[in-house]
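Page 42, continued from yesterday. The earlier attempt failed because a stray header line got pasted into the input along with the sequence. Redoing it now with the clean sequence only.
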Amino acid sequence: MQIKIDVTNYERCYPSRLKRYYQSNINYKNYMDFVPYAKRAVIGNIPPEIINLFKPTERADKIKQFQSVLANTTHACRNNKEISEISEVLNSGLKEIMPQGTKSEIEYIGEGGYKKVYRLSLKDKNGEKITHDKALLVYAMNNGVYARKSHGVYAEPNSWFYLQKNIGHPMDNTQFTKHYISDMKNGYSVTEFIDEDIPKTSKDFEHNRILGLILTDRQNNPRKNKKVYDIGGMLRHSDALTDRLTLKYFKKIAVRNSQKEREMVLNQLKKKAENPKTPLRDKITAAIDYYNWLPAWYWNRTSETVPIRMIW
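This time it went through. Structure tokens are written below.
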């Protein structure tokens, strides 16, 4: 007996949170298929210095309230309100949340094709900064912008979060400014603001060599104080590392500092892959194949000098 399935009653299952998607991969071609339907399209959190001001019993509620203030401020920015009006929205909202005497300041910095940038400062009743100034990134909200795979309110938070989770250590002392929170339904991100007091870049993270990622907008957005402030336009130059486990094994090779060390790890992985009892042999083999596909000069370049389009 054949059973008829009524396809009109099919209910699509959407992710409740984006954390797993955003730390697993970037450059999704189908952002519009899942981000708008997520129950909570927020990744990250507000800065810890602010969270620590709240009593533990009030912390969960006040974090949500603070995020709501950021959302309301973002809408005021997007609606081209005067800076005095934007400041009023910000301060009136924070008055109910922050300790008595807290003052906030917001300053318009500039804009590009996908977002506006504001400087956000918070000071206590004595005029001392509660935290280092933050950048409030206010994204344009229309399909032509936020659906792109490497720019806009869906893609750029994805790139920030992916880097944060795959670098393997804190971002503060790398060339990347720190990402705190992104709300993709309200269209904002908060990152560290670049000024003279920002944590210095002690060592570049080689995002190209280790993660196979290229910043295609680096000529249009050169570093400020040795920091990358705009993550838009970050792309993979190959789909080989879209699988997290393949990337895991490739990183074992890529993080080595010399060709001799890389070859040593490569040979160890080859032996594992040759053993039929080794789990995930296909992932190990894929990592080895990707390594062998790369040209010799690749390992002698930095992420800033690798060509945007590598032609083999």
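Notes: The chain is about 35% helix and 15% strand.
Reminder to self: strip header lines before submitting.
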